[in-house]
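Lab notebook, bench 4. Still working through the backlog of constructs that have no structural model yet. Next entry is a single chain of 482 residues. Request: give me the structure tokens for it.
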Amino acid sequence: MCHHHHHQQVASQMNRREFLTRTSLAGVGLAALSSLLPQSVFADSNPKPVLPHFAPKVKRIIYLFQSGGPSQLELFEYKPKLQELFGQELPASIRGNQRLTGMTSNQKSFPLAMGKFKFAQHGKSQAWMSELLPHTSKIVDELCFIKSMHTEAINHDPAVTFIQTGSQQAGRPSFGSWLSYGLGSENQNLPAFVVLLSRAREGDQPLYAKLWGNGFLPSEHQGVIFRSGDNPVYYLNNPGGMDKLSRRRMLDHLAQLHQAQVKHVLDEEINSRISQYEMAYRMQSSVPATLDISKEPDYIYNMYGEESKKPGTFAANCLLARRLIEKDVRFVQLYHQGWDQHGNLPNDIKLMAKSVDQASAALIKDLKQRGLLDETLVIWGGEFGRTNYSQGKLTPENYGRDHHPRCFTIFMAGAGIKKGFSYGETDEFGYNIIKNPVHVHDFQATVLHLLGIDHEQLIFKNQGRRYRLTDVAGKVVKDVLA
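Model written out:
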């Protein structure tokens, strides 16, 4: 065995403190050496943040994420010009040198597309809404629309990762993980960050667990998926032949072993693991009770719609989201798949809108009637918008739209924001922003602000770099605050 290799082995068996004391490295000094070692060894380089920085308007968030990129033009953006110029070329002056995806970059022609969907104004705020969202149209005076969202990413995976973690590259903590880490939990028997998945049609973009991952934050802050069915949280139930008492004894012994190990190895992650095991034990009783929606009264099912009785649907997940925030879960993230409509858009978007419209509106009304909307923020939207020109063949009955990062629409409801308000504006072609652009980092900074957090101060040091959700950008959009 070569001498060098033997040294490596010994070093890896020795913990870092032993390594430092034994090799005392006279000339180097502990401080210099510490900068070469992984951050987790020196847990005190990340003192627990003292939050909130100022009085929060919002305590909890329900993020109804519409995965795939819903078309703003069919749902929220009334652009009569597109109907008028149906089939004509998108003027080159409007398109500029916009980067296109591989799906339309080889098109010779960019014909303007608009379906037959009707728009009308609603509420005191006179918000334009499409006939595809009749229930949401009735609550526009509760909503704050941002019509000038824009993003840096043009493909799904980087775009979803960007709006969820502040970076197009995987590996950063998710929004909910930052909040779990920064603000902690208000309910000791449920995770601070819960994820619910649904889909309305097959064959859409996949979602990866990294989207609700904790990145470099301690692993107790990752999102926990609640699935529909008999086993809602994986690994929660006791293995066959083990009762609750023996599970408790096992955890106590495990904790002792771990504490001994922590003293020895100085790795914070061990404490994270223990807290996850303990949480799983407490969740054995709290999760079934929370997920049991059979006790909800009929009027609630009628409000959320027939689908709310079917576990795993968007409607059932909206109802669950309300139950979770009633139990003080801090961040509930729904992902609803099916919005990626490169072809067959008029038919598919009808189906998608129907799958979310009633339940989204019901959730907001339900929170309001329970007095919970005063401390909850509901966010609705996807990762980017869609192009105003057709991808593929355009007919009056059918067309598709490609990804469009330059402008898209989201809406919010709840605490701390202006109600019955629309912010930002796009041109008459619905292609470029002409007023009050809102970048993804601005949106993230604004949501953190509502939670009482200065986005520039929520920092975690990892491998010698200071990270935050908004990376190195982001301004709070003061104009949407109440």
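Notes after review: The longest strand covers residues 60-67. Residues 7-13, 24-28, 33-44 have pLDDT under 50 and may be disordered. Flag for follow-up if needed.
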